[in-house]
Amino acid sequence: MLKGKVAVVTGGSRGIGRAVCLKLAENGADIALIYAGNEEKAQETAREAAAFGVRAQAYRCNVADFAETTAVFKQILTDFGGIHILVNNAGITRDKLLLAMSEEDFDAVVDVNLKGAFNTIKQVYRPFSRQRSGKIINITSVSGLMGNPGQANYAASKAGLVGLTKTVAKELASRGVCCNAVAPGFIETDMTRDFTDNEDLKNSIPLKRFGKPEEIAQLVLFLASDASNYITGEVIRCDGGMAM
Ligand code: NAP
To answer: Looking at residues 72-87, what average pLDDT do you find?
Structure first.
């Protein structure tokens, strides 16, 4: 399905990003995965992706840093010869009620989750325009759609991603580039490990369970493939009905 395509996946070392790397690799895409510092997990994901017979390489990069992101994308373009799919998945939380939230807590989360996506989209904007194709998929969150107490920084960053997604979709539509967002609910990863035993939370979800990273990856695969060529500027929830 994605043979001959190169996908860059940020936050590809663990959780949802790892599942996305494996799903895209399983479907034939070469994978450049970006991680923040977890070298061991990043190399493990790269090895698992390569086992599908594709090329896979891990790159350490803080996506919040524009200069670092520019340098790493330059390297990826040299190594892979092109980019066709960009998945902005890298994300962090620093949950606290707004009263206790510091300026640093706010900036750190917005810098990675929102500015990080700006920084990477800047790198593919020209190449995607020139090649008159490309898929950009931003991982937002139901928090960004509904708000969530204790997540002012995170919800703001994820709501910002929705605006960024729709704007990029409008700017690049004439070039045949699609930009969409996926809004997960509670997915079982390191990010949510403190909540996965919370039965009340589980019962508040219409489908009565947390989601699995693979369920997000399946949706990302659809948005990365030609099967979704007439979809752009969309935000698709994958949340067991949480935000309906
Ligand atoms: P996770 O397990 O905590 O993994 C986070 C990933 O992001 C790791 O690969 C990490 O790299 C990378 N990362 C963090 N900061 C980075 C930076 N500055 N530069 C580059 N990479 C960075 O998270 P997850 O649960 O899979 O979440 C993935 C995305 O889905 C996030 O955007 C999150 O907000 C969103 N999401 C998650 C849920 C959920 O329930 N899990 C729900 C809604 C939305 P290292 O391994 O090197 O640290």
So the answer is: 98
CATH number at residue 222: 3.40.50.720
**Cβ of 89 less than 6 Å from ligand 1:** yes
Which residue in the list 35, 125, 154, 230 is annotated as catalytic?
Answer: 154
- Domain interval for residue 32: 6-238
Is 125 an active-site residue? no
In the chain, the number of structural domains is 1
Adjacent-strand bridge partners of 86: 8, 136
- Going from the Cα of 189 to the center of ligand 1, the distance in angstroms, rounded, reads 9
State pTM to two decimals.
Answer: 0.99
Cα 157 to the chain's mean position, in Å? 13
**What are the DSSP E strand ranges found in the chain?**
6-10, 30-35, 56-60, 85-88, 134-139, 177-184, 235-238
Nearest to 86 by CA among 223, 230, 215: 223
Residue to probe by mutation, ligand 1, list 14, 48, 137, 142, most atoms within 8 Å of CB: 14
Angle at 173 between CA 167 and CA 174, to 5 degrees: 130
d(CA 88, ligand 1 centre) in Å:
10
Domain assignment present for 244: no
187-218 pLDDT per residue, tens:
999 999 998 889 999 999 999 999 999 999 99
pLDDT band at 125 (very low <50, low <70, confident <90, very high): very high
Q: Determine the distance separating the centroid of ligand 1 and the alpha carbon of 81, expressed in angstroms.
A: 27
Compute the distance between CA of residue 178 and CA of residue 43 in angstroms, rounded to an integer: 30
Cβ of 160 below 6 Å from ligand 1? no
